[in-house]
Every structure is written in C-alpha cells, then in structure tokens.
Specification:
The chain is of the alpha/beta class. The chain has one domain: Rossmann fold, CATH 3.40.50. It is built from 8 helices and 14 strands. The strands form 3 sheets. Strands 4, 5, 6, 7, 10, 11, 12, 13 and 14 form a 9-stranded mixed beta sheet that branches. A 3-stranded antiparallel beta sheet has the order 1-2-3. The two termini are about 35 Å apart.
Length: about 270
C-alpha cells in the first residue's frame, strides 16, 4: 500500500485524507487520515477470497471507504459490485475515489448504496451472488471504546453482535449464493452461531502472522441454505519466520491481485 497525504475541501481540517494505492496501483482509495477506521490488509484479503472468474453481483456490507469492493472490481472484470455503507464521511471518500482515473477500469461496474445493513433501503432481496463483510471486531462490553465515534463504530460490534450482518447477508444472497466474513480468530463461535439456519458448507480459513503462531484472523465462507458439513482448512501464513516482510505468495495477493485459492487450493466455493 502506498499512501500520500492530500487536502480535500469538503472535509473538515480534522478529517484530512490520504490517497492509498492497493494491488500495485490498480486501485486508489481515499481515507480519512485520522478519526476513522483505515482499511488495509483485511480488506485486500477479503477481496482475494473471491475467485478471479467471479461473475454476477457482489455486495459488500459496511463497505467503509470501499477498499475491498474496489479491489474486487479490479480483480474480477465480470463482477458488478454494490457497496453498502451508512457513514457519511466514508461514503464521501468512496464516491471521490471512484472518480479517480486509477479506478476507471471498474468504476462503471460499481455502485454505492447509502443505507444501514438492518434497513437495506434500495436493495432487492436475493440480488447477490456473493456477500462479503469486514464487521467491527470487538465486543462493546469487552472493549476500550475509541473517543472518535466513527472510529469506535468501525471497531465495536453493536448489541446484536454478528446476527444483523448475517441476517442482511441471508436476505441479500440468492439461493446458493455465498457469504464471506473476515473476523478475529477468537470470535469463531460468534460466526458459527450467526450462520446457523442461514448458511452451511462453512469453510474456515485461519490466518496466522507466522508459522507456528496462533491464528489472529479467520475467513469464513458459507453457502446459503447448504447442508454440507463444515471444513477447517490449512492456515494462511502471512510473514516470513524471522522478518516482518510478507511471504512471496501473500505479496502476490497484495500487489499482483492473486486470489487466495492460489495459496490454499481447497479455498474454493462449495455447494
């Protein structure tokens, strides 16, 4: 990711923004420099969770400034993407970024919908072939809440936990469509509970910083109404053992838009 600081006349001085390059420059995102959640590794991995030949409609819930959705647009030339977000500043960033020349290759296939995931105004049921989301990781009861309300909202789950996210995903996904979440590893029980009765054929992909270390993130994909059993897949290892640099196969995901299935071959959608 490459970042450069810029000013933006429609943002207050406290909300100055940066322009951040992803996928080796195939994508440019605009993000508030402070006071909001800043998308990075998780968003790119979530986008890479979709196979490269993805076609049809992809909906990203809680899309923020649009990094994951933009990366899908760059990676999957036959996909249409809907970004669903309620935060006004994040939406302004996403719309401004979509107009940048670097994003012209997919801008015509991407639409932004301003609504809450529980309201889903303007969204048709069963519209999505795939739903993705990177929800707040932390439980409000167990978290030290950030003083910046927008940043806190991006990091702390609401009262309903993951249930509203999976309820929305189930409403928007077609029969046989998929829902994929990236979440903290110790929240796997929350994910499984929220998918019950909605998504089956769960594929759980642990993500660990280094070989031999516990997973700190998980990707979980499910298929709407499937009764296929759960699978626990081999982990993705991000970094070289004795360094902070990414392993070559991870670098290919981050810079060259390679799919996750190039690292874990069993990471392929089931029915």
């Amino acid at each position: 990711m490459i970042a450069s600081a810029v000013g933006a006349s429609r943002f207050s001085p406290k909300s100055d923004v940066t322009v951040d390059a992803f996928l080796g420059g195939r994508v440019e995102a605009i993000q508030p420099a402070s006071g909001h959640h800043r998308a990075g590794l998780e968003a790119v991995l979530l986008a890479a969770s979709l196979p490269a030949p993805t076609i049809g409609t992809v909906v990203e819930l809680g899309a923020g400034v649009g990094v994951a959705g933009f990366c899908i647009g760059a990676r999957c030339p036959d996909a249409r993407i809907l970004l669903v977000e309620r935060d006004a500043i994040a939406l302004e960033c996403a719309r401004a970024a979509l107009a940048r020349p670097a994003n012209s290759a997919f801008a015509g296939r991407l639409n932004i919908v301003e609504t809450d995931i529980e309201v889903r105004a303007g969204l048709e049921q069963g519209i999505a072939d795939a739903v993705i989301f990177n929800p707040p990781f932390n439980d409000a009861a167990a978290s030290s809440v950030s003083p910046a309300s927008a940043r806190a909202g991006a990091h702390v789950l609401g009262e309903g936990g993951l249930d509203p996210w999976y309820r929305a995903a189930s409403a928007l996904a077609r029969q046989g469509g998929t829902a994929t979440i990236i979440f903290r590893a110790d929240g796997l029980d929350l994910v499984i509970a929220a998918t019950k009765g909605r998504f089956g054929a769960l594929d759980i992909l642990p993500i660990a910083p280094r070989s031999g270390e516990p997973a700190h993130r998980i990707l979980v994909r499910g298929v709407k109404a499937s009764r296929a059993p759960l699978r626990l897949l081999p982990p993705v290892i991000l970094h070289e053992q004795d360094a902070n640099r990414f392993r070559p196969e991870i670098d290919a995901i981050l810079r060259e838009a390679a799919p996750l299935e190039s690292v874990v071959r069993s990471w392929k959608p089931r029915r």
